[in-house]
Amino acid sequence: MRYCINCCIHLLPNDLHRQCFRCSGPNHHNQKCPACKGEKRIPLYTDSKQMKLLAVLEVRTDHRESWNGFFCLRKGKLCSLAFGLIIMTLVMASYILTGAKHGLLLIPSPFHYGAFASNPSLLDNESLSDMKDHCQPSKMNVSYVKDYPSIKLIIDTITSKIEFMRRQRPDLEELRKQEPHMFSVIPAKFLPNSKNPCWYAEYRGNTTTDPYATNSYALYSKRFRIVFDYLRKVFWNHLYHYQGRHYRLRCLPHFYIIGQPKCGTTDLYDRLRLHPEVRFSASKEPHWWTRKRFGIIRLRDGFHDRYPVEDYLDLFDLAAHQIQGVLQSQAAKEHSARSNIIIGEASASTMWDNNAWIFFYDNSTEGEPPFLIQDFIHAFQPNAKLIIMLRDPVERLYSDYLYFASANKSAEDFHEKVSESLQLFESCVLDFSLRACVYNNSLNNAMPVRLQVGLYVVYLLDWLTVFDKDQILVLRLEDHASNMRYTMHMVFQFLDLGPLSEKQEALITKSPASNTRRPEDRNLGPMLPTTKAILRDFYRPFNTKLAQVLFDDAFLWQRT
């Protein structure tokens, strides 16, 4: 019998198996195996034919070879064990993620917010029964239900600190000192034959001057560039020439849609702009009063150059050109006709966003802003009309979260953010007034969700310190969605707009809703019932006060 010199593999009778698959080299040759010294062994033949690799294996009793087999077997078991552990980990991770999302976990989620202790004796039966009315098909996560009593204590503390104090209105001279340039540009009186606050301002440029060269909206926003390109072409055609001087018509809005975000302001704006007598700014939300005039694009990005009031007025030039065309027409001159065109502006931040005050205004009283947006608007436009669209603050907050959150959105994540925001708000009201906390820039930036935007009555009361109640129209999104024709007629009447034909009215009232929830956000489902109960408790005293101010119990949002 012939064997390989190195591995005791029985060689085939022919000469083709000179290269053993485990051995190679110039010294390889066929001879008796020195390890077995020619003793006869029982070989295991796999095939009598020639094989390219291992043809025949011999069962050997060599001690070293048996240990090699043992280690190979051990390595195989270790690999199998590691692979099994990986598979088990993936299965468990999938179980946790899907179970936590649908409330199916048998144990509390490890990502549960753990700052609250459980105390079942503090459970609010009335709130839980209200929660059942809105219970969703998915099961309630037990870990979040246990949060409720502890968070209820936080809400009770906040409620005990609520005090609606009337704000002291600043006088006109104080406002002038804060914004001297604005008062130098906007006159105290406007043209009598226009419903809008319009006036003529002298233009000192020439035909080669670009009137919008320094406009910040045109420089920093692509969406405005097309509008300003058009305005440059027609600018000289709309100048009023008198005694060798050039004048341009300047206008401020006749009405403002001032709030609130995620309450249907975009839909109201899109329908109103279809009315033949209504014109809007070049963009729905210039955010000039609240942000741009302070140089804020995004507060977290710091401050940029402040947008002067001239840049804001440029946004209404398209409407001003149409108003000027009516005023300068021959018929208008003969009959002293009045332009029925009205201009609107729809920045949803106008009602509530006063975050910039702390960086620009001194003499604050106990953390409260000495000047608010409405003080300046009223100083220039005491007859301005204001439209507010509101929504159940609980649903508004969840919609706001879904719209602005960038990643990892879920009902559980929303619950965590609500809990954290309530704790931060509680810490503030323990040391400061309600108004100081609502307008506290640091607090508002620290809260993961914008709880303060839903405190409608706080903002409304501050607007009522400078504007009369009949100058403010407050609507509910729920009513707008259920009876759009009725709410639009309320708006038309409030703005003194002319009658519409049936075709025009159908176009306005039957158009599809604007800015609805995105499909990917709808797929996340509703908020947790526990979260809804928590937020209802938080907003309840504010809704109660709002219903009292407006003499309308619909603003309690008890059945939404």
From TrEMBL:
<protein>
    <recommendedName>
        <fullName>Sulfotransferase</fullName>
        <ecNumber>2.8.2.-</ecNumber>
    </recommendedName>
</protein>
<keyword id="KW-1133">Transmembrane helix</keyword>
<keyword id="KW-0472">Membrane</keyword>
<dbReference type="InterPro" id="IPR027417">
    <property type="entry name" value="P-loop_NTPase"/>
</dbReference>
<comment type="similarity">
    <text>Belongs to the sulfotransferase 1 family.</text>
</comment>
<dbReference type="GO" id="GO:0019319">
    <property type="term" value="P:hexose biosynthetic process"/>
</dbReference>
<keyword id="KW-0812">Transmembrane</keyword>
<feature type="transmembrane region" description="Helical">
    <location>
        <begin position="78"/>
        <end position="97"/>
    </location>
</feature>
<keyword id="KW-0808">Transferase</keyword>
<dbReference type="InterPro" id="IPR000863">
    <property type="entry name" value="Sulfotransferase_dom"/>
</dbReference>
<feature type="domain" description="Sulfotransferase">
    <location>
        <begin position="253"/>
        <end position="520"/>
    </location>
</feature>
<dbReference type="InterPro" id="IPR052654">
    <property type="entry name" value="CS_Sulfotransferase"/>
</dbReference>
<dbReference type="Pfam" id="PF00685">
    <property type="entry name" value="Sulfotransfer_1"/>
</dbReference>
<dbReference type="GO" id="GO:0050659">
    <property type="term" value="F:N-acetylgalactosamine 4-sulfate 6-O-sulfotransferase activity"/>
</dbReference>
